[in-house]
Predict the structure of Helix-turn-helix domain-containing protein.
Amino acid sequence: MSTSGESGGVRRCGVSATTLRELERASGGLASASIGAMEQELPWFRRLPADQRASVLLVTQTGVSNFVAWLQDPTEAIRLTTEAFRSAPRDLSRWVSLRQTLELVRVAIDVFEQRLPELATGEHERAELKESILRYTREIAFAAATSYAAAAEARGAWDARLEALVVDGIVRGDAEESLLSRAAALGWEQSSEATVLVGNAPSEDPPTIVYKVRARAARVGRPVLLGVQGSRLVVVYGGPAEERAGQDAAEGLAEAFGDGPVVAGPTVASLAEAHRSAGDAMSALRAVVAWPSAPRPALSADLLPERALAGDPEAERRLVESVMLPLVDAGGALLETVDTYLEVGGVLENCARQLYVHPNTVRYRLRRVAELTGRTPANARDAYVLRVGLGVGRLAKARGLW
């Protein structure tokens, strides 16, 4: 490649000044020919609205005109190729994907390779132009990738802020339509059931947290929304609440949390009700310290005794409804039997002697208690729930709450 200066009539690129002027005059025709080839070869390009095709034409014209300047000074490659994309509308990357952009570049390269050598004054210039086309279009391709990467980063940052607002609204109990529309913008299916998980964040680096949660969500096949609030991580995941599938999803996502307990709220019918799941989960997280052997994740419904002891009125109400009232409605014998059974330490024969009944009668009554409350008195954890539930129920009755 020639390195002679202006005095010899040849630029540093080895292309004569005459040829460069011809290139400048032909730039408009080259851009139009490129657009024509795109319309002919790319069906998706033909389906674009006129204003979007015009935007592509603008980028192409800028790229062609910059090619002449680039030939004169190749060190300007990065600035000139990037300017081609700066002139495009901001939303260009929304309706033309990176793959499609590279298809456009490929078509333009073909047109350039066919048309530009005709403007050369000799074989040496033709070879020089062909090599320059390849080098310049390579820079264009890299500039396109950089432009799309920047757009993706900007959208990612915006999505992260939007997601944090949605999760914060759920935690605060905000069920407004704006929350649902923001979630829809993030791709959340409005009819999907929702469950809230809370626990400690695994690190202080937000990108690391996002990666871990989304990786786990992909493994269990559930959509998620997540937010980091100080040292606390809140994850809302969607999908059906079948017992096994829901448990597997909760256990899989719990692995993305840091050390310490993880609590799952109840599964609700839609995101509009997710604040109820979040409220239960937050209450249970504050109370779980009272149950050192709690599973991970623990269900907020399994922490009703601890939540009631911590002063959660919702937990008190649910204990009254699930433990006290069914036994009261069934008659005094069941309530007396479970009280006595718990007082004698779960020894069935001692309970029968205290009540002056046959041990089989006690067995039958305890089975009825299990049927009505879902709690088996012979199980240590269930016995604790029953004892606290009965105590809370009596306190509520003394206050005239039932």
About this structure: The chain has a mean pLDDT of 82.
